Amino acid sequence: METVVSWAGGAAFIGQTGSGHKVVMDGAPEGGGRNLGARPMEMLLVGMGGCTAYDVVNILRKSRQPVSDCRVELSASRAEQDPKVFTAIHAHFIVSGDGLDEKAVARAISLSADKYCSASLMLGKTAEITHDYEIVATESR
Known about the structure:
This is Redox protein. With 141 residues, the chain is of the alpha+beta class.
């Protein structure tokens, strides 16, 4: 996996992924930025959210669960001193579907957290990661 990050002036940087996608990162105005993009640490949290949501949806699909939506709301705390690593991350999953099995949802989240989500497992080296979930029933049309 490769990526290139280029300085765009001030505190802004443009990252280009190996798959050709670009993302803008910038700092807060008080840090010399212009608030043109996400902060790098926010990107790490978004990456973890995408990684674990991807896993949960795939595991539920493979389990033939009728998943129609998956949202992960993440909140994190950081160390007070440099390096200001994440010290705690909480992931709240909102999984929707018509007739989802609660045990299957819980299992999918646990498998992602404990085995499959590289981002969660890596961030878990410095942060205590917790999770919970809710299931939203949707009706078939």
